[in-house]
């Protein structure tokens, strides 16, 4: 997956307007965002060596891989829809959310700024497939993996204290999370 900054995530780079002849193709060419920025290829798991996975916090990644190993024993594969992201990729997602939801305020319920995003910090992952989300919602605390936002059943972060105490109460959405203020 590759996107141009300012392009829809579903747009391909070939759908972008070509630079005018007066523009230098190297000076004004839009930057393409791809795997190096955290775009996740289809079918990615927590065992794949792509930047969205490899750039996650080491303790977080270890917990994810242990959970995925145990989930596989139950016949569940944990896929990654989002992990670590570059600030540019996160900014692109935020701009897309503002366009989709019509305001920065509404977009902030779904996408954090690059400065506040736990994806940019390597401390958040978005899990794919309903079976994996269901498995983690029941068993994730044993690995310190917790769903943080009620409106995002795919978003997990590491909370090591959850192993002993269970996951903390969820925030309704990121606008209720004091870390996002």
UniProtKB/TrEMBL annotation:
**Where exactly are the transmembrane stretches of this chain?**
none
Which intervals hold domain D-alanyl-D-alanine carboxypeptidase-like core? 55-140
Q: Where in this protein does the record put region Disordered? A: 1-40
| InterPro entries reported for this sequence | DD-CPase-like, VanY-like_core_dom, Zn_M74/Hedgehog-like
What highest taxon heads this organism's lineage? Bacteria
Point to the regions of Low complexity compositional bias: 11-24
Q: Name one Pfam family in it.
A: VanY
Leader peptide range in chain numbering: none
What name is this protein filed under?
Answer: M15 family metallopeptidase
What organism, scientifically named, is this protein from?
A: Tenggerimyces flavus
Upper lineage is: Bacteria, Bacillati, Actinomycetota, Actinomycetes, Propionibacteriales
